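Service request form, structural biology core

Requester: graduate student, group of Dr. S.
Request type: structure prediction, single chain
Budget code: on file
Notes: please return the result as structure tokens.

Sequence provided:
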Amino acid sequence: MHDGSALEERGVPSVAVCTEVFFAAGKVQARVLGHSDLEPLTVAHPIQSLTPDEIRERAESAVEKIVERLTKNNAA
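Core staff response, request fulfilled:
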């Protein structure tokens, strides 16, 4: 959330990604950082035990959602 907030402050649209377990914490961090509208995109938990190929699959499954958010944020 810190990176996403810092990018947004510089005018760079961003999407913060976290696992669903950390969604609530991400929302709180965004609000504390002054970006309550920056809602994290969630992916399935856990990540640390995945193989590189499994992480790649997880990332690829999120790409369309990330592009959609960036496009939506950029059009606003």
